[in-house]
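Input set for joint prediction.
Command: fold jointly, output tokens.
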Amino acid sequence: MAERPEDLNLPNAVITRIIKEALPDGVNVSKEARRAISQAASVFVLYATSCANNFAMKAKRKTLNAGDVLAAMEEMEFQRFLEPLRAALAVYQKGQKGKKEVSEQKRREKEKKSGREEEEEERMEEEQENEVEEEEEEEEVEN
Amino acid sequence: MAATVATPVTPTELDSDRCGSEEESRGTEAEDSSQPQTGLPAAVSHSRLSKLPLARIKALMKTDPDVSLASQESVFIIAKATELFVEMIAKDALVYAQQGKRKTLQRKDLDNAIEAIDEFAFLEGTLD
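tokens >
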């Protein structure tokens, strides 16, 4: 069943932290104000999504992309967000690239390792056969 | 080579049968280098960049019936924008608290800010 917008709030602890970090020390925030800000944030997500989606649809794309969101910010008159968002996006993209390289490397190592394991297994099997035939102990050449 | 490894922009499908099955990510979990279609571990590892959990943001976006697919990047940017929005509205509301010589931000300060500031016009009538 689809979740309704009302059911989805952003985590209170995170919202509170963002608020506190934005305000000077010594300032408190009432519970009601916090709740209202959290609600406003959810509305913001929905509004931004809808706006961004319009740009995607205009471009005949089914997938919403970062460019659509940036265009939406401008449309919503949050131009002040554009610079920090572009900067964050650049860092995010670098991180994604790094993760891709890490997982590719892990896969390569895994393939190498399983290749090596197969060799060892074959060698051990041979040696066992020899032992049975000759009843001699052979040194295991493990490397 | 089989392209099973993560690609930078993986469209995350927003179908309703996956709603509610995603975990929250809080930015404290370890990095998972595999990136499945839901993009969930990716969301976890990047929530250091974004304080808000990408899974929750994505779930919110999903509730829009016109939205079919959204790239991971777009979810991230919306999360980041929301963070900036929260900072902005808190600061703008504070002005009204200070006018009232108060050190505690109250609901009415929010209402005042929403009424006075053009960028917040979309919020009118939406809060409880």
